[in-house]
TrEMBL record:
PANTHER family linked to this entry: BLR5614 PROTEIN-RELATED
Any Pfam family hit: Transglut_core
Designated name of the protein: Transglutaminase-like domain-containing protein
InterPro entries named among the record's database cross-references: Papain-like_cys_pep_sf (IPR038765), Transglutaminase-like (IPR002931)
Species name: Candidatus Roizmanbacteria bacterium CG07_land_8_20_14_0_80_34_15
Length: 627
């Protein structure tokens, strides 16, 4: 019976416990068959149409829902009819102000509660009988914990009724008229969005996952513990959260600051630290992190350009990304086929979270599919993708999970998560997917992502380096603190000019080379940074430079060639360095004609010989006087 299927789905996606869902399914089945009518009623004896409406209102940073069910039951046979209807709601749902009615007016629902659920039983007051007769139940209640306020966004997972082809089912969400939030992520996509109303007609998924608001902000505090076990000094690097096509960082502090920073081949953000012999050092990183539902325009060009340098290793088998058993994947080609294979092949093992979670890699997990956690889901996808010629890589970071059963976090050193990405050659963008969370939740993480994944490191060149925050440990400590924030990050763009090195007195006949260094002392990445040189009475071989990306604390050197504009004329030149619409340098350059230089050299030589001659004459005269 489709009614029973819907109740089990409604229950299951809240409790997220598979065995309990199956047990509860059977419990409801026996209950409804016993109570639906005086005769045995089959699913083919009637059809049911459902309309579910959620009317949202805001109250002190909480979202309240007025939930309205309209359940229309159509008799398909004259000899049977439905007299009763039951729905069970998990006790985790906070409901109040329950009201029920049918076509003839208000009815009193029978409500019973046990440790796990609240059962609501409705009985028609005077049901219509006969073939094609229609009876309608109306059920209304308030719910305070279905839609979640998560930082700057709202999130919800709505249960979906599994209906027959000839039945209809509509879900409507009405946002508050006072909000400017719009739906940014929806799985599946809605059929209609008009104003603050969103409608799904006959969704074919088990749940509807929706996010309202297109940017999420997180406050982060990450701790890195470094130790030099050697008797000689060393330099070491740590990986701070990088900026990506869908993630922007706003650094608040790094204490102590790194000696230097760099962006590696995979676009990781690495800080360099010096450690004395046997020294330990603790680094505390604080930042706000914005995660976007759409690709950022400012960084897209950079990531599209560097893929050509990355291609030489993005198809290479690595330690955890290699497969010997290829017979099972011989008919798999596309990223979607690989994703479906991984999601269906592997089974998430919750017991490994709290045990010695040894990473199996792709080949071993193919033979042990029930021993998988997020790393194995990612490893298997990447190994197959690379085998099929699809550029792919692994991301480790933080998955902000509202329920660990639905969205588990399973890297042992701290609360971390891993997921793969593949490069879409048509859109020229990296696409993040999460087979782990689809396996555990049933939510589609292939066609769209979410705002709950925070990138710590990107691994394309190596399968186990660099290490993500939370992996730099000396003792068993909690080193990751991530929470949603409501405050808007403030971006600070500032450049420091260093290492000036060029002649400021030049000849009118020669070319010169100069250089200077720019350091990002702001709090976020600078993408496509223009550097302009403006001159007077000077000719530049190149006056405009573009730094593709400059991370906080990172330095880039600019080298330029210049010469005098006018010949045989002594004058003053000028060089200005403009970055971020600010003048960082105004330097005068003295231009001396080469003939002047030649005359000065001649004069210097003549003067030198004259002085030597006078000294020689003086010495001769002294000797003569002595005789």
């Amino acid at each position: 019976m489709k009614l029973i299927d819907w109740i089990s789905s409604y229950e299951g996606m809240t409790l997220f416990v598979g065995k309990f869902v199956k047990y509860f399914f059977l419990l409801l089945l026996s209950f409804i068959i016993y109570h639906l009518s005086s005769n045995v009623v089959l699913a083919s004896d009637f059809k049911t149409d459902y309309q579910v409406e959620y009317n949202l209102s805001e109250s002190q940073n909480n979202l309240n829902s007025q939930v309205n069910f309209k359940i229309k039951i159509i008799n398909l046979k004259s000899e049977v009819f439905v007299s009763k209807f039951a729905i069970s709601i998990p006790n985790t749902f906070s409901i109040a102000n329950l009201k029920a009615s049918d076509d003839n007016g208000y009815i009193t629902p029978k409500v019973t509660t046990d440790e796990e659920k609240t059962k609501i039983e409705l009985e028609f007051s005077n049901p219509a009988v006969g073939k094609d007769s229609v009876n309608t139940f109306f059920l209304n209640f308030d719910q305070s914990n279905l839609f979640k306020v998560n930082g700057k966004v709202w999130e919800v997972i709505l249960p979906v009724i599994e209906n027959k082809q000839d039945e209809s089912y509509a879900v409507t969400v009405n946002l508050p008229q006072t909000t400017n939030k719009k739906i940014s992520i929806s799985k599946p996509k809605p059929d209609l969005v008009t104003g603050n109303k969103i409608i799904w007609n006959n969704p074919n998924t088990k749940t509807i996952y929706a996010v309202f608001g297109d940017v999420q902000v997180y406050q982060s505090e990450l701790t890195y513990h470094l130790k030099n076990d050697q008797i000689y000094p060393i330099f070491t690097e740590v990986a701070f959260p990088p900026e990506t096509a869908s993630q922007k960082i706003f650094i608040q502090s790094i204490s102590p600051a790194p000696e230097s920073t760099r962006i590696d081949e995979d676009s990781n953000y690495l800080g360099k630290y010096f450690l004395k012999p046997l020294e330990t050092k603790t680094i505390v990183y604080k930042s706000q992190i914005e995660v976007y539902s759409k690709t950022r325009d400012d960084s897209t060009l950079y990531f599209r350009n560097i893929i050509n340098q990355q291609k030489n290793y993005l198809l290479t088998a690595k330690k955890y990304w290699q497969l010997d058993k290829l017979d099972l994947i011989k008919n798999i080609e596309s990223p979607k086929e690989i994703y479906d294979f991984v999601t269906n092949r592997l089974k998430y093992n919750y017991n490994k979270i709290n045990s010695d979670n040894k990473r199996l890699g792709a080949d071993l997990v193919m033979s042990n599919p029930d021993q998988a956690v997020c790393l194995e889901f990612s490893d298997l996808f990447i190994a197959i993708a690379r085998e099929k010629g699809i550029y792919s890589r692994e991301v480790e970071g933080y998955g902000f999970s509202l329920d660990p059963k639905l969205q588990p976090l399973s890297l042992s050193s701290d609360i971390l998560h891993a997921w793969p990405e593949y490069f879409d050659t048509k859109t020229e963008n990296w696409v993040a997917i999460d087979p782990t969370w689809e396996n555990t939740s049933g939510i589609n993480y292939f066609d769209s992502f979410d705002l709950n994944h925070i990138v710590f490191v990107i691994r394309g060149k190596n399968s186990d380096y660099p290490y993500a925050a939370g992996m730099y440990k000396i003792e068993n400590s909690h080193d990751i603190l991530i929470k949603p924030a409501t405050s808007q990050p403030v971006e600070k763009k500032e450049i420091l000019l260093e290492g000036l090195d060029f002649p400021t007195t030049i000849s009118d006949k020669k070319s010169y080379q100069g250089k200077f260094t720019l350091k990002n002392v702001g709090n976020s990445y600078l993408w496509g940074l223009p550097v302009n040189l403006e001159v007077k009475n000077i000719i530049l071989k190149k006056d405009k430079f573009i730094i593709p990306v400059l991370a906080p604390f990172e330095k880039k050197e600019i080298i330029f060639d210049y010469l005098a504009k006018e010949k045989n004329k002594k004058e003053k030149g000028e060089l200005n360095i403009i970055v971020l619409k600010k003048q960082l340098l105004n330097q005068n350059i003295i231009i001396i004609p080469e003939v002047y230089t030649l005359l000065i050299k001649i004069f210097t030589v003549v003067f030198g010989f004259s002085v030597l001659f006078l000294i020689y004459r003086a010495i001769i005269n002294i000797r003569r006087n002595d005789h």
